[in-house]
């Protein structure tokens, strides 16, 4: 599969109370969409995420290109290759 020349951030929602309400979903997250921004490199996407989330560990800290879930909103972000996805989640402001 060929990359269209960029990377994007996938946004997922983690169910912070899932271990109580839905034990079978514990530790899993749900896809919400893709952020409306295309990056040239994985590192650019990570740097962008890091600049808006200084309270979180760096997105590439463990070389997974995936963030931890944020205790403020229970969201997590994953760097993906851009390949015709609909980019509907607003950028960080």
How many whole angstroms does the radius of gyration measure?
Answer: 14 Å
**What is the general shape?**
globular
Distance between the termini: 32 Å
The main sheet comes to:
4 strands, mixed
Describe what you observe in this structure.
There is one protein chain. With 93 residues, this protein is α+β, with helices and mostly antiparallel strands. It has one domain. It has 2 helices and 4 strands; from the N terminus they run βαβαββ. It has helices at 18-21, 42-52; strands spanning 7-14, 29-35, 75-81, 87-89. A 4-stranded mixed β-sheet has the order 3-1-2-4, covered by helices on one side. The longest helix has 11 residues, at 42-52. The protein is globular, with a radius of gyration of 14 Å. The N and C termini lie far apart (32 Å). The model has no long low-confidence stretch (mean pLDDT 88).
Core attributes:
alpha+beta, globular, single chain, 93 residues, four-stranded mixed sheet
Short description:
With 93 residues, the protein is an alpha+beta fold. Helix content is 16%, strand content 27%.
Topology, pairings included?
Layout: E1 7-14, H1 18-21, E2 29-35, H2 42-52, E3 75-81, E4 87-89
Parallel strand pairs: 2-4
Antiparallel strand pairs: 1-2, 1-3
């Amino acid at each position: 599969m060929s990359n269209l020349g960029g990377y994007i951030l996938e946004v997922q929602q983690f169910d912070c109370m899932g271990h109580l309400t839905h034990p079978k979903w514990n530790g899993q997250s749900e896809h919400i969409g893709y952020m409306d921004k295309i990056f040239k490199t994985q590192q650019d996407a990570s740097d962008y995420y890091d600049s808006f989330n200084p309270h979180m560990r760096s997105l590439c800290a463990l070389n997974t290109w995936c963030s931890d879930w944020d205790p403020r909103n229970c969201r997590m972000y994953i760097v993906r290759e851009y390949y015709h996805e609909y980019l509907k989640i607003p950028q960080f402001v």
